[in-house]
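Quarterly update, task 2.4: coenzyme A-bound model.
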Amino acid sequence: MPCAPLTTLRPARVDDLGRVLGWVPDAEACRRWAGPNVSFPATPNGAWLEMAASPDNAFALLADTVPVGFGQLLAGDHRVVHMARLIVAPGHRGRGLGRRLCEALIATACDDFAARRLTLNVYADNHVAHALYRSLGFSELLRDDAGEVILMSRPTLPPRG
Ligand SMILES: CC(C)(COP(=O)(O)OP(=O)(O)OC[C@H]1O[C@@H](n2cnc3c(N)ncnc32)[C@H](O)[C@@H]1OP(=O)(O)O)[C@@H](O)C(=O)NCCC(=O)NCCS
């Protein structure tokens, strides 16, 4: 695997979505990435509203100065933070950036949200994302009735002992 470039995570802006929406090829990919509330095609402003995005909950991963990844941290009750809408630019996949994006979001969830537990949803047939999340310590909590979508979870602190 080629080396991933230096990366930083920063709060996202509406104009980042202009780029991110270009990484989503069709309505089905959009639904699987962002859920049923985000239209396809969407304008950056429209998607920003549909995602209830803000600079507090949406983040862009930059390689040098170029956005190459995006994700949201949605705070729930009891310091549970849900990681949502993770995506890496198609031309940059398979280089470790998805892992960087997850690690940076996890660090932000701990530092800025005081997260105690993290959750995320993944399609069971999204083998790349599923393998990535398992390798980061997420395990399956439950599946939807159709068995298509898995809710995964992990504590933010390593288990004791
Ligand atoms: C899921 C996604 C974010 C992963 O990003 P990425 O940059 O390709 O991931 P990485 O290169 O960091 O790889 C991380 C892990 O994914 C797995 N992986 C990556 N490419 C893979 C492939 N072609 N086949 C199988 N597993 C693969 C491996 O476990 C890898 O770990 P390793 O580094 O120890 O080999 C990216 O594929 C993506 O944006 N997909 C479309 C949107 C999406 O599905 N988002 C997730 C919604 S839950």
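Highlight for this quarter: The chain has a mean pLDDT of 95.
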